[in-house]
Amino acid sequence: MIKDKRLAWDRYQDSLAYMTSLGIADKAPKWVELYEGRQWPPAGELTKNMPRPVINIIKMISRNKKAGVLSNPIALHFTTDDTTKETEQFDRFYEYISREMELEEKDADQIEDAIKKGTMASHFYWDKTKARKRGNIDGGLESETIDPFNVHVANPNEKDIQKQRWVIISSREEVENIIAGIENSNLTEEKKKIYIDNVSADESDSIYREIESDKVQYVTVLTEYYRDDTGEVFWQKHTKNGEISDAVSMTPTLLSPEGKDTGEDSLPDTAQDKTAKRNAFGWYPVVVGQWDDRDKSYLGIGEVESLEHNQKSINLGMALQLLKLQGEAFGKWLVKEDALQGQTINNDIMQVLIDHSKLGNGVQKIPESPISGTPMNIIEGLMEQTRMVTGATEVMTGEVIGAGMSGAAIATLQAQALKPIEEKQKMFWRYKQRQGMIMAEFFKHYYEGRPFTFTKKDSKGKEKLEAAVFNGSDYVNTDFRVIV
Prior knowledge:
Layout: H1 7-21, H2 24-36, H3 57-69, E1 77-79, H4 88-101, H5 103-117, E2 119-127, E3 140-145, E4 151-153, E5 166-174, H6 175-183, H7 189-197, E6 218-227, E7 233-239, E8 242-243, E9 248-249, E10 253-255, E11 261-265, E12 286-290, H8 303-328, E13 332-335, E14 363-366, H9 374-390, H10 407-417, H11 419-446, E15 448-457, E16 463-471, E17 481-483
Antiparallel strand pairs: 1-17, 2-3, 2-12, 4-5, 5-6, 6-7, 7-8, 7-9, 10-11, 13-14, 15-16
């Protein structure tokens, strides 16, 4: 447990310094802008008339890889060495809660984060405001996609979040809402005053430098997760000034009629479990995944970071070609002083000019030099090489392959082209496995007497909707493995 009121903030600042040392603090906002198509710097005096084409090869490659990773629907299967436990209902309950939480939509957001920023992260928590359908605790499980650079860890060289001594999630929240939450809590008046005094507006440390409303006061809130000596996970909230909540165990407890913590596990004891020690929640509810591994870092390397310079070269080459066209489109004329006598050359179609010079040849078009195709060949070659090394070939992206090919041949080529995607799919599946383990902890500790529905095929193969009740106490002592 944190005793020094500034320790959490100091840890957070150390993490920001680490990100700065990697160059991420400066580069991450630029990666987002490149992906979204803002790929040119502001115009200067010398470049104000320069074309600014955007051939967004970054987004094309990224979206196709994202689609490839998410192309196969994912199902999780929970297994255990305990032969007395039937896990089929556990699998069904996972499917039911996953749909309720809309995990599939959040998966897409997290993959996009990984592509743009190199890392993706999700946070699971118990939402007491969520609609309740009978159970031992009000609310329901919820998850959120969090910016990976808002996740801070004790050892940035360790990729496994569950091996960290502590994990901090930083967020910007309204001062008014934080104070209201403290005032409406069950804390003593003395503690409420201490915690409210620690809530004051501050400047954002975000690497994205977002512009915040002048009419709303914001404060940086640090939610810290850590384990005690027994391996039980706790959380506590802090600001720059100190803690703003008590340390709370992730293992839920029963409340007395007066609303006081009884210290007893919320799940009922079974006959075999009455003498067992408290069944503790042992997983940090945070999952982090890397698109490509960065050496000795929990932060990864994204698709955009690898393509940044290629993208800029393609845009610049195209811009210089267009600038040449722009400069020579109207051509230049050689005119003697007495030749035009007030006429204006405007390049209108069928314009007629009278040469008033005494000897003639007073108005002459200067022949333009032919535009070389070499620069375009270089640009096309760079684009082709970029697609080749990233695995985003025409076959993978679904473009026309060529005439006269059989369907079987095309299918074979497409299967081969998806080989580079398989590595990313396996990365994502490992990420989903870790999510499944965290959700299993919530199921075991927070859900009891929870009705749910699932589909089941009858003897004729037709699907029908059935109802069941999930009891976490049936699995509280069960150690699960997750198979994708």
